[in-house]
Amino acid sequence: MSDATDPPLQIAAWSMLGTPAAASLMSRIGADLLVVDAQHGLFDDASVIASVPAASAVPVHVRVASNSASLIGRALDAGAAGVIVPMVQDGSEAAAAAAATRYPPLGERSWGPLAAYRGEPTTAPDDANAQVSCAVMVETARAIAAVDDIARAPGVDMVFVGPFDLAIALGTSVAELLADHSPGNPLDAVVEACRRAGTRAGAFAGGLDAARALADRGFTTVAVAVDTQLISAAGSALIAEARSI
Ligand code: 3PY
Ligand code: MG
Q: Which of 62, 83, 165, 173 to mutate to test the pocket of ligand 1 (most atoms within 8 A of CB)?
């Protein structure tokens, strides 16, 4: 259930397709932010570097392939507003991810923004530290058990649930996870830990019904519009209708 102290709901778009054109299109559909997926999407280092400036209509957050300081640094050097770090298991992994997003003295990020090579102004280290967002993904049983430590880790701005991995890890399905309202539901545990820590709670939804269910539970960032799914769904519906011409 949403709470009066929660931040306003953010609706995220999500790009898998690995090109600046797809990222640019997805940044212009009215979402509050765009996630460029370099874990399970087709983005690599070069296409992240080309896509972040192309998707200039909204802040771009890169889901990096793993909890690696160099991947996090390169995504931020490309101009990303933040990163989403998958498969974070405990407070120390969360703190390491966050440290990779901040320059000293707050963290261990190394200076070298790619914006400079595009002739764009760079952001001063203190401003970059204040503006960047570090989201860490909670999607295993171990992470759920450590969710308070993860949400409280210094520099973590958002705890982001991967419901598909979480459902696999817990031996259930996303539908059952969303339908379950018994005490101790892991989705509620994430929202409650985030409220205690003053951290945003986000989740991948992948569609309207899941987004609504997650927002009703208190998640304040929901990723709802995924480019691959939109093309398949809208394309097959249109072709099916065109068959009746
Ligand atoms: C998950 O559901 O596990 C995700 O990582 C969403 O992309
Ligand atoms: Mg996942």
A: 165
Give exposure, 211-229, as e/b (b: 16+ Cβ within 10 Å): bebbbebbbbbbbbbbbee
Packing angle, helices 69-77 and 91-101, rounded to 10:
30
Query: What ipTM did this prediction achieve?
Result: 0.99
CATH of residue 120's domain is: 3.20.20.60
Provide residues with CB under 6 Å of ligand 1.
Answer: 139, 162-165, 204
User: pLDDT tens for residues 133-176?
Assistant: 999 999 999 999 999 999 999 999 999 999 999 999 999 999 99
Domain that holds residue 93: 10-242
**Cα(40) to centroid(ligand 2), Å:** 8
Number of domains in the chain: 1
Q: 210 or 115: whose pLDDT is higher?
A: 210
pLDDT attached to residue 116:
86
- As annotated, the active-site residues are 40
Rounded distance from Cα 83 to ligand 2 centre (Å) = 14
